[in-house]
């Protein structure tokens, strides 16, 4: 399956973004956006019962792993802030970061642990690779989660962090980083193929929401 789970290979890269974080959406509006997006993805894929039964445990496992990644990032945050502060002081003082500060940042981010999680995601993606048909993968190329897709002023308000494009929704704004939905394109961190279509990262986040998992469970019955 070159869609959905393959995008999970890019586990967070705590790269520094300069854009201000987006304003938090209204919870009621965000919930409606999530429900609409989940319904649109469900309709787009139109999974068979067998497909749903195969995908459901994989997506549930991926959702659990995403929670572990978030918790790990939060645990590492104080050390990352300390290391970045040291780098800032180095740059202000001499114009470049010292080797010691860079090493401290690498250790704070947990490079080896992050790579292990990335490999675990890769294993899940391989398990799911063959679930979708060619026709379903082709439909995902034009998937658009926005409630009023096609309107010029529909800039995905209320989608929430990691659910659509914009400041804060890249490798810094969400534990999953950029998307990797199909062959031949590089992801935001330069590793592996990126998704087809302009909303691949949102697609992955939608696939791991309780709203979509609930619809998937209904198809699996």
Can you tag this structure with a few keywords?
221 residues; mainly alpha; 7 helices; 54% helix; elongated
pLDDT average, as an integer?
73
First-residue to last-residue Cα separation:
22 Å
Tell me about the largest β-sheet.
none
Question: Order of SSEs, N→C?
Answer: HHHHHHH
Q: Taking Cα atoms only, what radius of gyration do you get, to the nearest Å? A: 18 Å
| Helical content (DSSP H or I, runs of 4+) | 40-55%
Total helices: the number is: 7
Q: Which ranges are low-confidence, i.e. pLDDT below 50, for 5 or more consecutive residues? A: 8-18, 157-162, 164-196
β-strand amount: under 5%
Give the CA-based shape. elongated
> How does the helix and strand content classify structurally?
mainly alpha
Number of strands: 0
Brief summary of the model shown:
With 221 residues, the chain is mainly alpha-helical. It has helices spanning 27-45, 49-94, 99-109, 111-128, 134-140, 200-207, 210-220. The relative contact order is 0.26.
Task: Characterize the structure shown.
The protein is an all-alpha fold. It is built from 7 helices and no strands. The chain has helices at 27-45, 49-94, 99-109, 111-128, 134-140, 200-207, 210-220. Helix 1 (27-45) packs parallel to helix 7, helix 2 (49-94) runs antiparallel to helix 3 (99-109) and helix 2 runs antiparallel to helix 7. The radius of gyration is 18 Å and the shape is elongated. Mean pLDDT is 73; it is low at 8-18, 157-162 and 164-196.
